[in-house]
């Protein structure tokens, strides 16, 4: 579908209806949501309603919708994101856009944590840390009742991204451990505790990996 930058008034209403009900995942939606940002919210609302109605039928197409979902989430303004995070119920589609909805906003992360219905997604925004933004969110998660161990696991595993690496697992875990070491020196004792928990966890994984690697070196796979 073509994406004109100027829509004639005579066709605008029908064009907007067509856009907000198009769940094909077509690449043109990126330009639509960048140019006509106000269409992102109704499109997301409609696709969430469609998921609730169609169930797995639309989930089977989610690999084609990932980019469109991401573009739509980024096009939402702060109030749109806040409203969605505070009122939404768990869904496969929402799961895909939690990270984009929250972004780097501490306030939006608090909105997510305040929605008990989305508890299974509460720690998703911590995935991929540690960094400065992660540290702020980690403190917010602690204040919401999550433990250091919860946060460490969420940093590594979020239920969406695969867990894979190349080379020796011991090297991978050592690199991961090293990322937390700078956080052992921090003005907030909660971050220090999280860093210690992560390092201890990684050191145990390194020991197990080294045993497995030595066995493999001698006996093969």
Describe how the helices and strands are arranged:
Blueprint: H1 9-19, H2 28-35, H3 40-54, H4 56-59, H5 62-75, H6 78-87, H7 92-102, H8 106-114, H9 132-143, H10 148-156, H11 169-180, H12 189-219
Question: Can you characterise this structure?
Answer:
This protein is mainly α and 221 residues long. It has two domains: 102 residues, no CATH class; 99 residues, no CATH class. Helix content is 66%, strand content 0%. It is built from twelve helices and no strands. α11 packs antiparallel against α12. The chain is elongated, with a radius of gyration of 21 Å. The model has no long low-confidence stretch (mean pLDDT 90).
Concise synopsis of the structure shown:
The chain is mainly α and 221 residues long. 66% of the residues lie in helices and 0% in strands.
**Strand percent estimate:** under 5%
Mean pLDDT: 90
What sequence of helices (H) and strands (E) makes up the elements?
HHHHHHHHHHHH
Distance between the termini: 52 Å
Number of strands: 0
Structural class of the helix and strand makeup?
A: mainly alpha
- Total DSSP helices: 12
Which spans of ≥5 residues are poorly predicted at pLDDT below 50?
none
What count of structural domains?
A: 2
Index terms:
12 helices, 221 residues, mainly alpha, elongated, 66% helix
């Amino acid at each position: 579908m073509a994406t004109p930058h100027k829509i004639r008034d005579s066709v605008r209403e029908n064009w907007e209806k067509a856009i907000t009900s198009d769940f094909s995942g077509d690449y043109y939606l990126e330009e639509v949501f960048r140019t006509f940002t106000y269409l992102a919210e109704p499109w997301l609302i409609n696709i969430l309603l469609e998921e609730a109605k169609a169930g797995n039928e639309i989930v089977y197409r989610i690999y084609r919708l990932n980019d469109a979902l991401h573009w739509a989430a980024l096009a939402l303004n702060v109030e749109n994101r806040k409203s969605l995070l505070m009122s939404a119920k768990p869904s496969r589609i929402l799961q895909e856009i939690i990270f984009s909805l929250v972004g780097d906003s501490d306030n939006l992360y608090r909105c997510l944590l305040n929605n008990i219905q989305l508890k299974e997604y509460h720690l998703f925004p911590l995935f991929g840390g540690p960094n400065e933004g992660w540290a702020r969110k980690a403190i917010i998660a602690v204040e919401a009742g999550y433990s250091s161990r919860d946060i460490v696991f969420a940093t590594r595993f979020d239920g969406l991204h695969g867990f894979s690496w190349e080379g020796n697992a011991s090297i991978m875990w050592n690199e991961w451990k090293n990322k937390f070491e700078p956080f052992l020196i921090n003005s907030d004792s909660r971050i220090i505790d999280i860093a210690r928990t992560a390092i201890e966890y990684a050191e145990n994984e390194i020991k197990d990996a080294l045993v497995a690697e030595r066995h493999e070196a001698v006996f093969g796979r």
